[in-house]
Amino acid sequence: GIISNWTKIPSPLFKKVVFVLIDALRDDFVFGSKGKQFMPYTTQVVEKGTSYSFISEAKPPTVTMPRIKALMTGSIPGFIDVIVNLNSPALLDDNLIWQAKTAGKRIIFYGDDTWVKLFPKHFVEYDGTTSFFVSDFTEVDDNVTRHLDRVLKREDWDLLILHYLGLDHIGHMTGPNSPLVGPKLREMDNILKKIHISLLSKEEAPLPNLLVVCGDHGMSETGSHGGSSEGEIHTPLLFISSAFEKRNGPLTQPELVQQTDLASTLAVGLGLPISRNSVGKLILPVVGGKTMREQLRFVHLNGFQLSRLLQENTPAYEKDPGYEHFKIAEKSHGNWIKLYLEGNNSEILLNLGKKVLKQYLKALKTLSSSLSKQVAQYDMYSMMVGTVIIMEVLLLLLLSLPKALSSRAEFEVPLSSPLFSLLFYLMCLILCAVHVIVCTSAESLCYFCSMSWLTAVGVMMLVSALMCSILSAIAKIFENSRLPLKNPVVSSSSWSEIDVLILAGTIGHVLSLGASSFIEEEHQTWYFLINTLCLALCQELCRNNFLLKECDPQHSTTMKQNFDSIGEASDCKNIDIPPAGNSKLGKTTSSAEFLKGSDKWISLASPWIILICCRLLRSLNQTGVQWAHRPDFGHWLTSSEHKSELSFLAAVSLLMIFFLVQRRCSLVSKIAMALGLLGVYSYRAAIGNVIFPWQHDSKDISK
């Protein structure tokens, strides 16, 4: 009209919004066979009710906190959010919750306390549940549901957020095909039914209510999440409201949308500004029931916000295809408005409106895709420089390790010779040249390139110095290995097979922690490493104890002289003799008694006893994702019919603790410890885990 209203935010489309987030809800739990079997009400609403169904695609990392950020800000969190997922700080980015609070909306939240940490002062009422008791499938959801009946009757809220964790916990413990999944989905279906019926009964003209159901991430076939498999990134997204048209035909495959699209869609639905850093695009069917003018207004708002974000992050934004499409659509929109204001209600106006809408949607798709790619771009050059420095320091430490672990505990890094070598200056020149080439040709912003040239040269000198030191250390090792050893027994800088095995095992274990599946099954790594180490120790002990027996007399005399020299050296210079379990001949009490006595047989038996104990421990408790459901000795003991066996084992163990420790205790300590251990057993008997020898019936005992 006469006065432009384009700077004003459109009025809200819905009065009350209930946002139900079911943690780890996979798309096939709703749209697949499990949905039809265990979620009949939701399936009926999806197929025949007034709803719109989508499959929402989440970007990795698929863990809770980054996904909540994506849902509420519309931006794509980085991998650093995996670390802060454990201790979520307050979210400072522009987001839907902050916008709703600023607009005077009253928000109530019940569920995962990650929300309370992210939005500490935004809720008028909240009750957070912790997500770290993974074995809790029931209470964690009951603590959310117990508030529902009371809240749904009240009128003093505009946005209700519920975050259910039970399904995620079941996934972690037993996997997606567990018999526990069905009852949990049925429980969620009943909750959604209760909310939907309540919202319908409370509706008043002109604004309807809206129920949104989604998952933050899915779960893999083993029940875990964090990666980018289809089961982990695809979740259902349902919009249920009386404002939508009722479905008649059969359910087709739901359309794929991005998880970040929800923030823009909910912002428009609640009459709020779209979050500043949102890369999501409006899900058009949700506003499809409005007039053409309103629909064009909504997509223009979204396009304007995305183009502004592009301008802030891209110097050559005008050449971006998404920005060009948006400007063309905006011009066409202006022409449509002119026709509309002239009072033209012909079919030409409708067709032109549809054409402009298509142009806007194309622009939104291109802009969103372009911005998402920019967010996912990492500063590879700076990351590579940092990685090179870390790897050089690590390699230098590894090369210095044998001397550092020797009896003299030397830690020597040669610096003077490398710093004055020709190689050092050549490397500095080459690296500086590479830095200039990379920084002058880089299109995107680079942290390392933004540093001062003096700092950059200093970093290059550090890289060169470390590299020269490594080469110098390697050369020294080769030089020492060619020299004949005067006393091979005392030499402590050479590496034994056990040393190499321990080092390789440690590095292998550290590398295995780079994958979530290896973290979940970490015990398998330990089983393998301990068994391997025990077998290697056994072989080493056999070689030391038996092969040396077959040595000729001359060799024995030489060894005797070596032992004598070791004894003299240790007496004079107080040098530590390397202990057993090493390839340097083990315990050296004296040259005559080395291969005699019971110590030899105890040392030979030790690895096999440890292996047997480890095998028993493995069968005591099945753990991890893969085998947690398998029967084990722990379950056998804790079952009610084997209470007497458990009682006997517990009593024997407590008595052994007493007899092993009491020798070093005073009389008062002995009495105190005996009473304490008796108290331990009595407590376990009182709660019903074990039985007293004189107890025949559970009624005989008093707590």
**What class would the helix/strand composition place it in?**
alpha/beta
Major sheet characteristics: 8 strands, mixed
**Overall pLDDT:** 84
For the biggest β-sheet, the strand order reads 4-3-5-1-6-7-2-8
Short description:
The chain crosses the membrane at residues 380-399, 419-438, 450-478, 646-662, 674-694. By secondary structure, the protein is of the alpha/beta class.
Explained architecture:
The protein has 4 domains: 16-258 and 265-278, Alkaline Phosphatase, subunit A (3-Layer(aba) Sandwich), CATH 3.40.720; 286-377; 380-478, no CATH class; 633-697, no CATH class. The protein has helices at 28-31, 33-38, 40-48, 64-73, 80-84, 96-102, 114-118, 139-145, 148-153, 166-174, 181-201, 230-233, 261-269, 292-313, 321-341, 347-376, 380-405, 416-419, 422-441, 453-482, 497-512, 516-520, 522-546, 553-573, 598-620, 633-638, 643-661, 667-686; strands at residues 17-22, 51-57, 107-112, 125-129, 159-164, 210-214, 234-240, 255-258. Strand 3 (107-112), helix 7 and strand 4 (125-129) form a beta-alpha-beta unit. The chain is α/β, with parallel strands linked by helices. It contains 28 helices and 8 strands.
Map the helices and strands.
Elements lengths: L16 E6 L5 H4 L1 H6 L1 H9 L2 E7 L6 H10 L6 H5 L11 H7 L4 E6 L1 H5 L6 E5 L9 H7 L2 H6 L5 E6 L1 H9 L6 H21 L8 E5 L15 H4 E7 L14 E4 L2 H9 L22 H22 L7 H21 L5 H30 L3 H26 L10 H4 L2 H20 L11 H30 L14 H16 L3 H5 L1 H25 L6 H21 L24 H23 L12 H6 L4 H19 L5 H20 L17
Parallel strand pairs: 1-5, 1-6, 2-8, 3-4, 3-5
Antiparallel strand pairs: 2-7, 6-7
Helix pairs in contact: 14-15, 14-16, 15-16, 17-20, 19-20, 21-23, 23-25, 27-28
